[in-house]
Amino acid sequence: MEGVAGRLLGTGVEAVAPLAVGDWSRAYALRHRGQDLVIRFGLEMTDFAKDERAAALAGPDLPVPAVVARREVDGVPVCVTERVGGVVLETLDRSGWRSVMPSLLAVLDALRAVPTFGSGFGPWDESGHAPRRDVQRWYLGVAEGPPGSVHHCGRDAIAASSVGAGALDRGLAVIGDLVEAVPSGRHLVHGDLVNANVHVDPGTGAISGVFDWGCALWGDHLYDLAWLDTWSSWHPPMDEVALVATVLDHLARTGVDLTDAAARLRLARVHILLDSLSYCATRGRDQDLVDVHARLLPLLDD
Question: What are the angstrom distances between the C-alpha of 263 and each of 179, 183, 218, 243, 302?
């Protein structure tokens, strides 16, 4: 590990220690000439390029670690970023969630205010270009991710899984019924504000870092709220702070257009769960597949 870090950073690398292993990357802490850094080994350089693009959009209310270096080493995408302290957002207790809410609202506001670039809707590449011409096509294409990509979501895998394609077909029908409620505006959506991608200063309650922009997309700004709400029951304190009501009340008080907000949130939740269903099926994560399927079914009967 020191050897790879040295090839990117030069001499002075020390104190390398493992941090986390995810589906798409492995992360290690290190120090380089007195600076605390993180080195990650991933599957696609595009994800790290998106981290670098997001860092350029950072501000006081949207803290994104700077990318120090990134390139392929022996065919493996590698990225070094500043290390940010704090605890993981979804591990907060009820008191922690009450403390973090002002900062979380500020992050959501900052995401919504970022000037868009590139084109299209859905996950964007390092140039800011996304694959769908309009937001409706992106929602309806939930089971048609790019073949060969780690983001690929295949209908065949769902149909062959233990849950079958019934929920996918019903979910696509719900999306078809609701998709016209989505406004046509493009906003920056992080797309994964859990999974240890947000750190919080436990002393102040301020969000200290927003990481891993590989799932970032152009779409409805309510998508990030729907993402947090979708997984809240897996993190009970999130479910106890009236997250959706608090955010919607804040948006209403600041003059944000919330036309068809309930339909947009339901649409996003269905999309998120169908995407997760596809991901679990293609990855062979059978227990997660069953859990996601159970979470999806009540949304299809509303």
Answer: 8, 11, 19, 17, 11
